[in-house]
């Protein structure tokens, strides 16, 4: 018997309509766990690096985390993996909600789509019955409507649906896959789904998920719940309210948006408005939010309430579900000071299925181009005068790929190059061709420098983690903080934190030393890699400060759930290193090199090019990668991935400067 | 007849507090697994969430009595602008729906308040509901003497199960199987 996982994948060839249930190899689970890890392995094994992301040869893999669907609180994530049309690298966007547990209960760990359907279809998985169904009546429908229509026509409210909107159908490079209150938004995976003519995947399952060591597993789960309750009564001190609790930032419940509105940049990641958050704004925005939020909601088996049902009389859409910071991204991108605009446009954009990080930035970029004469009235006929109107206008153009929208739909990086006329200079906030969080700060932060540069999830909030983002000014507060910090992997991190000062000898950029900086980065990165393979939500694990899941209880949880024998060393030094190196190798094979590992030029005002180069050198060495950031043959061999190193060697990827292709 | 005190177990359900996470279904099905916590499956749970998020309907319902036949009509309730099916509130394991039946055998399920030895402090759905949509209390009620005596639960459960099987397969078929089983012994 297989534990935690089902041991079966569904293989769907959309070109031929062939459906197969395939038993998986338990040895692959041992090597890569599940979710991200096993997805990456399938992508490496089966999709050649020269594959065009939007071609039928690309695979679209919906993978569940190893523990998704078990009673582990917050284990509900779906990891969607493919090659990205936007970055051309591996995409592994993820979503919470209810989809992954439902798929497990239907008896599958993954659904792997290949080929391209001749007509728009959706997949209906009802335990052992799997059917490709006509979706012509769903063409052009928003994701909320699509979900409702599918539930109605299959006559079951317990069905879980993941779908794309018009943006995905029109292969917008930042199209998302949407499900309930969640979405897998990054890197244009919705466009890949659209390119396959796949509108939705609907799932219903009523089978068991088995646990290897029941008593031990449930005790660990109860411990996690106890800690969540304790933590709710004991928020972390000395950090903004939005970072003091668990979950993803509680944007739907908390009114205090001082941190986002004053620390993050507005417009095309340009303007910081340090004085924005006044009592007056807080009062007005609180009223708007209270009027819009009908109920705080959660994902499967999770006590947090990171999402909300939004119902507002002026909504273009009657109702939708929202999470996290998307209420602000459009507001801040458009420089419109009205939160109601945020709720209105976010609902419309979600219906179309676009990434709420990237989309507002693309639109802000277009407005900048217009204001600087690079885009003209010819490109933007009848362009409204106000930014609110402009955002609604641009959104329609983009999702319909109409006129200039056809170019903007490829994201800032590609659009800038297609438009030319100096537009490249306005591509101010992309890394690896992908829009990043609009945050521009003063002093180089060596830890975030490495996270931003080398992260391949294309989203800093999904890479950063348990280390407070800034030092506490008072030493007593720092000492107090570390007294109760069992989550750290080693004691020297506490020493670092106690020493860490806002300025002086123990301040950025030369503090901490290289070794400690690498360890801090690896700690945060490792915790995310574990979550992305187990399907436990980062909001209870790798993301917040002092979370209930950490490196000292996760190995036991994984072992008790799955029956694998995993200790801290095996998890950290073998499995995570293996998955991280494999992902790096996949991207190296697609052309990723050192030159791509860099944050936007204006990310910090104070930059230190030599120190930054040294940081990268040291981090690569620390990871067992060469000077171009490619895992060495020895590193790969030690991680049971010698066949990967062999392939890289055969392709000449280690011969730097000789066979390296411009990406 | 004389009146005596009887302990009544009560789960209070506050629909406004429910965040729809289904942890109640998860832990219920895990606790009631053949070996405790060895598997979980909301389809086996004795509490089910009626969830219609966009209609703001979040309604946990507990499995009650088995019934062989469904109701003649289906009424609608409108409460605070939300439209509920009469069945949404019904606890019966009934032919009209899949809820409250074991998915493979079709045998009916019934909430037992997590009866356990040693006893749990509170039903586990309540324990796992950190939103406090479910809370537990015990209160005393006066009943006529004799009624308070606990029935033999195992026998009651067996009877319920057999009755459901008889409804599903017919008494004759069951009698045949019984006869074969007796022969083998």
Q: Kindly, what is the distance between the CA atoms of the first and last residues of chain A, rounded to a whole number of angstroms? A: 45 Å
How much of the sequence lies in strands of chain B comes to 15-25%
Total number of distinct structural domains of chain B: 2
- Gyration radius of chain B, to the nearest Å? 19 Å
Could you outline the blueprint of secondary structure elements for this entry?
The complex is a heterodimer of chains A (663) and B (185).
Chain A: E1 8-13, E2 18-23, H1 26-32, H2 35-46, E3 60-64, E4 78-83, E5 90-95, H3 99-106, E6 110-114, E7 121-126, E8 129-134, H4 143-154, E9 160-163, H5 166-169, E10 177-179, E11 182-184, H6 189-195, E12 198-204, E13 209-210, H7 214-233, H8 241-244, H9 258-263, E14 265-266, E15 271-272, H10 279-292, E16 293-297, E17 307-311, E18 319-323, H11 326-334, H12 339-352, H13 358-371, H14 387-400, H15 405-408, H16 411-419, E19 430-431, E20 434-435, E21 441-443, H17 446-454, H18 475-483, H19 492-499, H20 514-534, H21 554-562, H22 568-589, E22 604-606, H23 609-623, H24 633-638, H25 642-650
Parallel strand pairs in A: 1-6, 7-12, 21-22
Antiparallel strand pairs in A: 1-2, 3-4, 3-6, 4-5, 7-8, 9-12, 10-11, 14-15, 16-17, 17-18, 19-20
Chain B: E1 3-13, H1 23-31, E2 39-40, E3 47-52, E4 57-62, E5 76-79, E6 82-85, H2 86-89, H3 124-128, E7 134-144, H4 153-169, H5 171-184
Antiparallel strand pairs in B: 1-7, 3-4, 5-6
Helix pairs in contact in B: 4-5
Summary, kept brief:
Chain A is an alpha+beta fold and 663 residues long. Chain A contains 25 helices and 22 strands. Chain A has 3 domains: 8-204, Aldehyde ferredoxin oxidoreductase, N-terminal domain (Aldehyde Ferredoxin Oxidoreductase,  A, domain 1, 4-Layer Sandwich), CATH 3.60.9.10; 241-435, Aldehyde Ferredoxin Oxidoreductase Protein, subunit A, domain 2; 441-650, Aldehyde Ferredoxin Oxidoreductase Protein, subunit A, domain 3.
